[in-house]
Amino acid sequence: MIKTDIQNLLSREQIEFYINNGFVKIDNVLSKNDLTELQSIINDAMEAPANLSVQTDKKGGAYYRVLNQKVNLWRDHQGIAKFVLDSKLASIALKLSGSDGIRLFHDHALFKMPGDSKPTPWHQDFPYWPMNREAGKKALSIWIALDDVDETNGCMKFLPESHRIENLKPINLAEPANIFEQSSSVAIPKNSPVTIRMKAGSCTFHHGLTFHFAHSNTTDKPRRALVIIYMPDGTTFNGKNHIITDGLNLQKDERLQGELFPLLAK
């Protein structure tokens, strides 16, 4: 399925770029056949009623205008699970993070709907995740483009070196605060944001603390992406509410493991 030669996908230079900047682009991580399959599967998964997956907002809602999102599709759809649980993708995350093992936290489909979407404001991901601080050094996401992306339909921008900034609060994406004002007491890197245009089937990996932003979608088609959040093996629960962990009766500092958080690579 996914290309088998990870060494051809991920060079030493790319690993060093990720370590230094908090993100990296990898072209053509999916074959043409994989891309076609995933494009079809994700459309079906987004339209199907949610069972174990979760739709985060309804059409017309404030969050929906930013992102039409469905979380943990792998639990409802075997076709999505094949990609989300793929050990080769997880092995890239393992190499980039320097972890001893990589577990799945969750997946989510992120569709920016056409015409009426809003930009995704600058934010970090890690403040939303119910993980103790130690995981913040290594948790990361893959963002797989299922359509060609540029500034017209919702490509992302990253702020290099911002993954070194900790202890910020999560941003309300529907009614955002300015993360740069929140972080005024710390030294923000003086780098210019980097815009990442990609062909469908390519991806980025970004650190959970890296500042990132996505343009609005001004085209007449949805901009589709599959995102998989990875965490280092041994990550523990910080006790805070989260759509994935609510109702699991987890105790503070308990390890996030088991069938809901499978080990994908080591």
Question: Which descriptors would you attach to this protein?
Answer:
266 residues; Jelly Rolls; four-stranded antiparallel sheet; 7 helices; 12 strands; globular; oxidoreductase; dioxygenase activity; Phytanoyl-CoA dioxygenase family protein; Phytyl_CoA_dOase-like; dioxygenase
Major β-sheet annotation: 8 strands, antiparallel
Structural class: alpha+beta
CATH fold name, please?
Answer: Jelly Rolls
Question: What's the gyration radius in Å?
Answer: 17 Å
CA-CA gap between termini: 19 Å
**CATH class label:** Mainly Beta
* Overall 3D form: globular
Q: In the CATH hierarchy, what is the architecture at level 2?
A: Sandwich
InterPro entries: Phytyl_CoA_dOase-like
Protein name: Phytanoyl-CoA dioxygenase family protein
Organism: Fictibacillus fluitans
Keywords: Dioxygenase, Oxidoreductase
Could you give the topology of this structure?
Blueprint: H1 6-9, H2 12-21, E1 23-26, H3 32-47, E2 54-55, H4 62-66, E3 68-71, H5 78-84, H6 87-97, E4 102-112, E5 120-123, E6 140-145, E7 156-158, H7 179-182, E8 194-196, E9 203-207, E10 212-214, E11 223-232, E12 263-265
Antiparallel strand pairs: 1-9, 2-3, 3-4, 4-11, 4-12, 5-10, 6-9, 6-11, 7-8, 7-10
Protein name: Phytanoyl-CoA dioxygenase family protein
Pfam family, one: PhyH
Keywords: Dioxygenase, Oxidoreductase
Task: Characterise the protein shown here.
With about 270 residues, this protein is α+β, with helices and mostly antiparallel strands. It has one domain (about 5-255): q2cbj1_9rhob like domain (Jelly Rolls). The protein is about 20% helix and about 20% strand. The chain has 7 helices and 12 strands. It has helices at about 5-10, 10-20, 30-45, 60-65, 80-85, 85-95, 180, and strands at about 25, 55, 70, 100-110, 120-125, 140-145, 155-160, 195, 205, 210-215, 225-230, 265. Strands 1, 2, 3, 4, 6, 9, 11 and 12 form an 8-stranded antiparallel β-sheet that branches. A 4-stranded antiparallel β-sheet has the order 5-10-7-8, with no helix packed on it. The longest helix is centred in the first third of the chain and has 16 residues, at about 30-45. The protein is globular.
